[in-house]
């Protein structure tokens, strides 16, 4: 069954530089290598793009400014002007996820956003941060978030558990959405690529489908980075303004 | 039952979930078209919301597909 399990082989984490401290394995893996490349590329784009800032921007500077403007607009529209203290965080998340998604599309590279541990860590970080922001800004008043204003009090035993569960499921849905999109998309392409050999003469059909799927995947990569960021913004808005 | 057959049947059953997302995505784009047709000036605002809705709904389809793939290849 080795050839059947091949579609998931692209998600296997391989240690490149084995490092062990005690019983803990903190090896430098292909996932970590891709993350390093992503961070280096983002630094290169932003630092290189704004180093010699001109009034009429060149290509690199336009790209850096456009990404900044895009996320700034997103924060302004969804969180409001008092959410701008969290702009660096939102911008970092957006660039990290976007570059991770796009670099994963390069054949024979590695998609670290297709690892649930990465996406879930990002999601749980956003969740904890948003909860802390809400608690620090509003104190115990934050807990009125779980009871919609204007609802009759006798509905509380039903409404409060529902609101709490929906709040608690936020990091799960946020993390799994990105993970499932990346993993299902890449697996689907690998499965179709596998049909190329078995179909023989008609092998060009799966390749044609894969070309179309690649276009879809490029859209999905950008869209999922956007969705992850905009949901972060919406959660931040909830925490800052409480409904 | 042959375990391989059970695996295939399970993956097929998991893929049924995609139907719901198909209805959802069709609904989103149908509503998007009709709202832009009614008010073409609102196109830029509505299109962004529509894309967000599409991405959120498509993710549900991929949950089902993910389960199907995991049943087929990982377990």
Commentary on this structure:
The complex is a heterodimer of chains A (243) and B (75). With 243 residues, chain A is mainly alpha-helical. Chain A contains 7 helices and 4 strands, in the order E-E-E-E-H-H-H-H-H-H-H. Chain A has helices spanning 30-51, 59-78, 87-104, 116-138, 156-168, 170-198, 204-241; strands at residues 15-17, 20-21, 24-25, 28-29. In chain A, the strands form 2 sheets. Chain A has a two-stranded antiparallel sheet with strand order 1-4. In chain A, strands 2-3 form a two-stranded antiparallel sheet. In chain A, strand 2 (20-21) and strand 3 (24-25) form a beta hairpin. The radius of gyration of chain A is 22 Å and the shape is globular. The termini of chain A are far apart. The model of chain A has no long low-confidence stretch (mean pLDDT 88). With 75 residues, chain B is an all-alpha fold. Helix content of chain B is 88%, strand content 0%. Chain B has 3 helices and no strands. In chain B, helix 1 runs antiparallel to helix 3. The radius of gyration of chain B is 17 Å and the shape is elongated. Classes of the chains: A mainly alpha (243), B mainly alpha (75).
Descriptive tags:
heterodimer, A: 243 residues, mainly alpha, two-stranded antiparallel ribbon, 7 helices, 4% strand, globular, B: 75 residues, 3 helices, 0% strand
Structural class of chain A: mainly alpha
**How are the strands ordered across the major sheet of chain A?**
1-4
Helix content of chain B: over 70%
Quote the distance from N terminus to C terminus of chain A.
Answer: 52 Å
Global morphology of chain A: globular
Give the count of helical stretches of chain B. Answer: 3
In one word, what is the shape of chain B? elongated
Radius of gyration of chain A, taken over Cα atoms and rounded to an integer in Å: 22 Å
What is the mean predicted local confidence, pLDDT of chain B? Answer: 89
Write the H/E string of chain B, N to C. Answer: HHH
Mean pLDDT of chain A: 88
Greatest interface: A-B, 20 and 15 residues
Ranges of chain A with pLDDT <50 over ≥5 residues? none
- Oligomeric grouping of the chains: heterodimer
Q: What value does the Rg of chain B take, in angstroms?
A: 17 Å
Helix content of chain A: 55-70%
